[in-house]
Write a structure and sequence with these properties.
The complex is a heterodimer of chains A (174) and B (99). With 174 residues, chain A is mostly helical. Chain A has helices spanning 2-22, 26-46, 50-75, 89-109, 130-139, 142-163. In chain A, helix 1 (2-22) packs antiparallel against helix 2 and helix 2 (26-46) packs antiparallel against helix 3 (50-75). With 99 residues, chain B is an all-alpha fold. Chain B has one domain: Orthogonal Bundle (Helix Hairpins). In chain B, helix 2 runs antiparallel to helix 3 (56-84). The radius of gyration of chain B is 17 Å and the shape is elongated. The chains are: A mainly alpha (174), B mainly alpha (99). The interface between A and B is large, with 87 and 68 residues.
Chain lengths: 174, 99
């Protein structure tokens, strides 16, 4: 049953990822990424990461993807030209990506980490629940947590500065 | 399910994201490919956290999600600024800094 759930999630995640890079219209790519993220959240649940799965759905598939949809609707779906700046790029790039995958697989499967072979150790009840993650975040990783909130603030201000209309350029702007 | 399967899947997703980064030229799709790669990294972090039976990997994955959200916000701000200045939305035509 668990293997079936894993393969359904894996096929969804992989199919979504391939659709993101294969579809020519950016708007459809964004929608394919939503499929990918939801499948990935299912895999997170299989790994006992309940809080992360919920955060993935709420933060990513909810908030970030809405931002993507708005921007891709704003700039319009422009089809990419077939023109290639580097000859053979369309054939060379998948080849390089395949080489990268082989390399990562060798690195992962060639390690002598015996814990990776089984299902992993039995975990206590409440592993990955919001309560235990929150305890870790507010006790052991408090500085990282505060730094993350500062980073989000800086990014929000930066986005407003970048996207805002200059007054001299467009005096009638909002 | 052996945890190796999760790591191989994560490697595969990372390679797909890298291929997209090399093939596509629309900056919006390039940001989506970055998301793919960051999420592949998150999957590997969670698989390792499960294999060690402790939750610190979950905290790392959460911070990765925060950084990804910041990257998206700044990147989309740049794309909107490019669109407002009527610059082409094609990373190969934005070569002003090329020596």
């Amino acid at each position: 049953m668990e293997a079936l759930a894993f393969f359904v999630g894996a096929i969804g995640a992989l199919g979504g990822a391939i659709a993101v890079i294969a579809l020519r219209n950016p708007f459809y790519s964004v929608l394919a990424l939503v499929v990918h993220l939801v499948s990935l959240a299912a895999l997170f649940l299989l790994l006992n990461a309940e809080f992360l799965a919920a955060a993935q759905i709420v933060v990513y598939a909810g908030a970030v993807m809405v931002l993507y949809v708005f921007v891709s609707a704003y700039v319009g779906g422009s089809e990419e030209p077939i023109w290639e700046p580097i000859p053979g790029q369309r054939f060379l790039a998948p080849l390089l990506a395949g080489a990268l995958f082989v390399e990562i697989s060798i690195a992962v499967l060639g390690t002598a980490l015996t814990t990776l072979e089984g299902d992993g150790p039995d975990v206590r009840l409440g592993f990955g629940s919001p309560a235990s993650i929150g305890e870790l975040l507010l006790e052991r990783y408090l500085i990282a947590f505060e730094a993350a909130s500062l980073l989000l603030l800086v990014a929000a201000v930066g986005a407003v500065v970048l996207a805002a209309r200059k007054r001299r350029e467009a005096p009638h702007g909002a | 399910m052996a945890l190796e399967w999760y790591l191989v899947l994560s490697g595969l997703l990372f390679a797909v994201g890298a291929a997209g980064l090399l093939i596509r030229r629309n900056p919006l799709v390039i940001l989506l490919c970055l998301e793919l790669m960051l999420n592949a990294g998150n999957l590997a972090l969670l698989a390792f956290a499960r294999s060690h039976g402790n939750e610190e990997g979950h905290v790392f994955a959460l911070i990765v999600m925060v950084v990804a959200a910041c990257e998206v916000v700044v990147g989309l701000g740049l794309i909107v600024a490019m669109y407002r200045r009527r610059l082409p939305l094609n990373v190969d035509e934005m070569r002003g800094l090329k020596g």
